[in-house]
Design goal:
Two copies of one chain form a homodimer. The first copy, chain A, contains 17 helices and 24 strands. The longest helix of chain A is centred in the N-terminal third of the chain and has 23 residues. In chain A, the strands form five sheets. An eight-stranded mixed sheet of chain A has the order 6-9-10-22-21-20-17-11, sandwiched between helices. In chain A, strands 1-2-3-5-4 form a five-stranded mixed beta barrel. In chain A, 30% of the residues lie in helices and 25% in strands. Chain A has four domains: 98 residues, Nucleic acid-binding proteins (OB fold (Dihydrolipoamide Acetyltransferase, E2P)), CATH 2.40.50.140; 180 residues, Bira Bifunctional Protein, Domain 2 (BirA Bifunctional Protein, domain 2); 133 residues, Gyrase A, domain 2; 100 residues, BirA Bifunctional Protein, domain 2. β8 of chain A pairs antiparallel with β23 of chain B, so a sheet runs across the interface.
Chain lengths: 583, 583
C-alpha cells in the first residue's frame, strides 16, 4: 500500500511518483491549495493538493486531523523560502495525484499541542503514542533492546526463558500472587526477578544466559516504579566479578556508541566506602562536583557537643560540603536547606560563610564560629580549600544520617547552583558490606545468594559484620542502572548466610530447599548482573518518567485507564479458583 | 577460567596447552590411567590423567560424576584405534597437567542413562538439563529465537512489550487472575495473547510490531499445552493477507534453512473447504498421501439409508478413503478402526476390499456390496482409482462427523501403513468460514477481531453464515504452527461482528469499549499473525513434547516439582489483597 515511508521521501526522489500511507498530522488551507503534513513512524512529509485535480481535491477537502490516508503523488522541490531545514523531507513536497481515505477520525479527545493529564494520556494511549516525540521514544527502546540482543548473541549468550508462574521469590518486595485452580488454596507468584532460575541454568551448564524479561513487584509506586518492569538479566559461569563487569560495561559502552554516538570511556571502579565518604551515596552522581569532606578529627575536642559528640562516636560522622558562591545564600535559603536535610533526619545544618579568607576568622560568618579555635578554623579552610564567596555546610550525627542528608543536599545544591555537568558519568560501585546490621539482626545488602569476598564459611560466620560482598552496581549519572554479584555456589556457605540472616534450617529448607539441593551436585562458580531496561532507556532518551518509555504503563495506583484493568472478576471464575473476596 | 570450550579442542590445538572448565561426564580407569570425559555446553573432551604426575593424579582420583572441575593440559593425538569419528574432539585428548576441583557432587538422584519419570526429571531439572540431548534442545531454542529476531529486525519490525497485568482477554480460554491490592476485590488477568494491544500499537502508528512473548491459559493440560507458553507475535499495518503470509513464510523458510539446512520451498495455499474435503482437517498433514474422496453423488439413490440419507442431506457427507494394501486387514483390525472412528462420533465404518478388480463385482468383498448397483461400483472404483489389494473405508453421516472421523482415521492409517513421508510439508490454510453456526448461535472461528473477505458490514449482517474470514493458518506436518488474520479496522464492522456473536451493546461497551473507541480515530488497515514458538521448536528438534523445549515446564497438573509451586500463601498477604480461601 506504500512505495515509501514518509520520512524517506527526499531530494533523491525528485520527479518520481511515490505512494505513502499514514495519518493527517496537520492540515492548512493556503492560497487555494490544501497542505497536509502526512505522518508515519518515520516522520512527516508535506503533501500539496491542487484544485486543478477537482475530484481528488474534493476528497482532500474532507481530510481532518488523524484521518488515515493513502496518497500517491509526484515529488517536487519546495518553492524557495518554504524549505524546512530541520526536517529530513524539508526540501521536498508531494504533489498529490490520488488519495484514498482509509479511515476517518472523529475530533480528538486529546490535543497533541496542549498539556494533557497523565490520566487522559493513558486512557487514549493509542493517540498519545502517535505524538512523534512519544512514538520515537518507544522506537528508540525497541532499538536498544535489539542492540542489547545483538551484543549478547555475539558474546555467546543464550536467551533462555524462565517461568512467569513460579514460587514466591525472596527479593523482599511484595509478590503478585496468582491463585491456582488445579491446586486450590495454593498460589503462584509472579517473579520479582529470575534470580534462582538463572542460577539453576548455570548449574545446568548453559554457561552464558541472558533474557530481557518482565519482573513484578507489588509495591506502592513512585515516579520510576511500575508493577511490571523489564530487566536485562545476565548470568555467567566461570567468570570473575571483574570479567562480568568488563563484559557488561562493554555492552553499555557499545550501546551508547551505537544509539547516541557517545563514548562512555572506561568506567571508574569505586568502593562503597569511598562512595559514601565522598558523596554520601552508594550511587553517586559524578556529574556533580560537590563532595563531602570529613572533619571529625578537627572538631572532636571543641566545646560544641553537636559536633564533638558524633566526632567521638565510632558510629558518628562530621562532614562538610563546600559550595562555591554559596556565601550569597540568604538566611531564608539556608533555612530551606535546613528543612530539606531534616527530611533525612538531620537535626540542623550548621553553616559558615567565607567572605574574606585573607582576613582570617574576621572574614568568616557563622553561628558556630565561636566554638571553633582559630587553629581549627585555619585547618578546616585549608582542608576544604575554601575561597572567598564559598559557604561550608556541616552535618554531624550518626554516620548514616550524615551521609544520607548531605548526600541528598549535595544533589540539591548541584541543581540549585547549576553545577551539574552535561556529560555522561558512569561508574562501578563495589565492595559493599555483606550485611547491614540493625537492631533486628542482619539483613543482606544485595540478596542472600551473594558471595562474600575472600572469606570461608567459618570466617563469615565468625564475623558477619566485617564481610564485604562480591557485588557490583553500575551507576550512571546518579542512577543505579544495573546490579549484580558473584553468587554463592557452595552449599555450606549458602547455609551459613541463611543462618546469619536468621533463616533457620526449617525455613531454609521450605523456601530454598531446591537451591540447597542443587548446590550439592557440582554447582559451578557463577556470577551475573541485571539491568533495569526501563530506567536505562529513560536515561538515554532524557525522559523524566519510565512511563514515557513503556508503551502501556500503569498509573501510580497500578491501574490502566485504557483497558480499565484491574476489573471485576466473574464470580464463577473465583469459585473455580476456590477463593472469594473478603466481605 | 578457561582458554577453550571442551568442544573447541580439535587437531588444530595439537601440542598446545589449553584450560577447560566443566563437568565430569564419565570416568573410566584403564591400564593405570584415569580417563575423564569432560563436558560443557559445547560437547565432550577426553582427558587423560597419568600417574607420573602424582599430586595431580591423587586429586583426579577423587573425581566422581558431575564434579565441577578446571583442567589445564596438553592436547595430543589419541592413539590409533581410539579415535572417535562421531565426536568433534574425537581425534584428540587432553593430557592433564593441573586440576582444580571447583565443586564436588553427591551421587546423582537421577541416572542419565536410564529412563527416569517425568516427575523426577522436572524435580531435578538442573541435572536433567545437563544431559547433552536436553542441553542441545534448549540451546537450539535460543538460537531459533535469535534467528527470528534477526529476521524481524531486518524487516523493520519493532520489538514492543505489551502488559502482562491486564484485563481479561476474550480468547475464550480461562484466564489466570491476579488479585489487585490497590483496588481490592478487582483482578488483573494474565494475557492469553497480546491481541488487542498489538492492534492498538498499529493504531499508534508503529507500523510493524513483533514480540516473543509469554501467554497464559488456565486450561486442563495435554501433552502439547502448558499454562504459560510463548508466542512469536506479529502485527503489521497497510499490508494485505498475502503480504503477511509472504513475509512470515519467508521468516520460517529462512529459519529452516539456517537452523536445519532444509529448504521448505514455496508453501501451497489451500482453502479451508478443500482441506476439509480432501483431508477432513483444517490442518492437513500433507506428508500423508491418503485423501478423502466424496461419493455422495454416487450413492444418493441406492437402497441403503446409511449412505443415501447423508448423501441427500445438505449437511451430510459420504466419503471414502482408499488404503493401498489395505485388503490384507483382518476382521479384527477393521473392528479396531471402527472403534477408533467411533471416538469421533462415527456410527460405523463400512468397508470394501478390492481383491481382483478385473473380476468386477466378484473381485470385491464387502458387507455393503449388496446395496450397490454394479454401475455405481464401477464408477466408485474408477473415482478412487482402486487397485488390487486396496481397501475402501466409508464414512457417511453429518459432514462434520465424517470429516473429523475420516480425517483422524487418515492420520492413523498413514502411521499404521507407514505411508508418511519424512519430508517437511508446510502449507497455508485460508478462506475459513467467518462463523461457526451452532444451536446456541454463531461463534467466531478465529477471534472476534478478524475481518471478513469482501463484504460490507451490512452484507455481513444480512448473511453471516456465508461469510469467509480473511484469516490464515500456517500448518506444518499437520501441526498448526501459526495463525493470523486481517483485522477489522472499521468501528461499524466491529460492532456488527459483536452483534452476530450475541455480544450486546452494553457488553461490547463493557468489554471492548476501548477498542471501539480506538477505532474511531483513523485506525489503519492492519493484519498479523502469531506463531507458537514452543510447538515450532518441538517440531524442529523432533521432540515429542513441548516440555522438552522449555527449560522449566510445569507438569500436566500445572505444578512445578522443582520449586514446589504453586505454594501456600502467607495469610497476611491474602489479607492485604482482600481475598480469602473458600472454606
Amino acid at each position: 500500500m506504500r512505495s515509501h515511508y514518509c520520512g524517506q521521501v527526499t531530494e533523491q526522489e525528485l520527479g518520481n511518483s511515490v505512494t505513502v500511507a499514514g495519518w493527517v498530522h496537520k492540515r492548512r488551507d493556503l492560497g487555494g491549495l490544501i497542505f497536509v503534513d502526512m505522518r508515519d513512524r518515520t516522520g512527516l512529509l508535506q503533501v500539496v493538493f491542487d484544485p486543478d485535480f477537482a475530484d481528488m481535491f474534493a476528497e482532500a477537502n474532507k481530510l481532518r486531523q488523524e484521518f488515515c490516508v493513502q496518497i500517491t503523488g509526484e515529488v517536487r522541490a519546495r518553492p524557495d523560502g518554504q524549505v524546512n531545514a530541520r526536517m529530513t523531507t524539508g526540501k521536498v513536497e508531494l504533489l498529490a495525484k490520488e488519495i484514498t481515505i482509509l479511515n476517518r477520525a472523529a475530533p480528538l479527545p486529546i490535543d497533541y499541542n496542549q498539556q494533557v493529564s497523565e490520566e487522559q494520556r493513558l486512557r487514549y494511549r493509542y493517540l498519545d503514542l502517535r505524538r512523534p516525540d512519544m512514538n520515537e521514544k518507544i522506537q528508540f527502546r525497541a532499538r536498544v533492546a535489539s542492540a542489547v540482543r545483538r551484543f549478547m548473541d555475539s558474546q555467546g549468550f543464550l536467551d533462555i526463558e524462565t517461568p512467569m508462574l513460579t514460587r514466591a521469590t525472596p527479593e523482599g518486595a511484595r509478590d503478585y500472587l496468582v491463585p491456582s485452580r488445579t491446586h486450590k488454596g495454593k498460589f503462584f507468584a509472579l517473579p520479582q526477578s529470575p534470580q534462582l532460575f538463572k542460577q539453576l541454568l548455570m548449574m545446568s551448564g548453559f554457561d552464558r544466559y541472558y533474557q530481557i524479561v518482565k519482573c513484578f513487584r507489588d509495591e506502592d509506586l513512585r515516579a520510576d516504579r511500575q508493577p511490571e518492569f523489564t530487566q536485562i538479566d545476565i548470568e555467567t559461569t566461570f567468570m570473575s566479578a571483574a570479567q562480568v563487569r568488563e563484559l557488561t560495561e562493554s555492552m553499555v559502552r557499545s550501546l551508547f556508541l551505537e544509539m547516541l554516538e557517545v563514548d562512555l570511556g572506561d568506567f571508574p571502579v569505586m568502593a562503597y566506602s569511598e562512595a559514601m565518604r565522598r558523596f554520601g551515596s552508594d550511587k553517586p552522581d559524578l556529574r556533580n562536583p560537590l563532595e563531602l569532606v570529613d572533619v571529625a578529627d578537627l572538631v572532636k575536642d571543641i566545646d560544641f557537643k553537636v559536633f564533638s559528640g558524633p566526632a567521638n562516636d565510632p558510629k558518628g560522622r562530621v562532614a562538610v560540603i563546600k559550595v562555591p558562591g554559596g556565601a550569597s545564600l540568604s538566611r531564608k535559603q539556608i533555612d530551606e536547606y535546613t528543612a530539606f536535610v531534616g527530611i533525612y533526619g538531620a537535626k540542623g545544618l550548621a553553616w559558615m560563610k567565607v567572605n574574606d579568607r585573607a582576613a582570617g576568622v574576621d572574614g568568616l560568618q557563622s553561628p558556630v564560629l565561636k566554638f571553633f579555635p582559630d587553629a581549627v578554623v585555619t585547618e578546616l579552610l585549608e582542608r576544604v580549600d575554601a575561597h572567598d564567596g564559598d559557604i561550608l555546610l556541616f552535618g554531624a550525627d550518626k554516620a548514616t544520617v550524615v551521609s544520607e542528608a548531605l548526600g541528598a543536599l549535595r544533589l540539591k545544591l548541584g541543581q540549585d547552583f547549576d553545577l551539574v555537568s552535561s556529560e555522561w558519568k558512569p561508574l562501578w560501585v563495589v565492595d559493599f558490606p555483606m550485611f547491614e546490621e540493625t537492631d533486628e539482626g542482619f539483613f543482606a545488602l544485595h540478596h542472600p545468594f551473594t558471595a562474600p569476598i575472600g572469606v570461608s564459611a567459618d570466617e563469615l560466620r565468625a564475623n558477619p559484620g566485617a564481610a564485604l560482598s562480591n557485588a557490583y552496581d553500575m551507576v550512571l549519572n546518579g542512577v543505579e542502572v544495573g546490579g549484580g554479584s558473584v553468587r554463592i555456589h557452595d552449599n555450606a556457605m549458602q547455609q551459613v548466610v541463611f543462618g546469619i540472616l536468621g533463616i533457620d534450617e526449617a525455613e531454609a529448607q521450605e523456601k530454598f530447599g531446591f537451591l540447597l539441593e542443587a548446590l550439592k551436585y557440582g554447582a559451578p562458580p557463577h556470577a551475573g548482573l541485571a539491568f533495569g531496561l526501563d530506567r536505562l532507556v529513560m536515561l538515554m532518551v532524557g525522559a523524566s518518567s519510565i512511563r514515557d518509555v513503556i508503551a502501556f504503563p500503569k498509573t501510580t495506583t497500578a491501574q490502566c485507564p485504557l483497558t480499565d484493568a484491574p476489573g471485576v472478576a466473574n464470580p464463577a471464575a473465583l469459585d473455580e479458583l476456590g477463593i472469594q473476596i473478603k466481605p
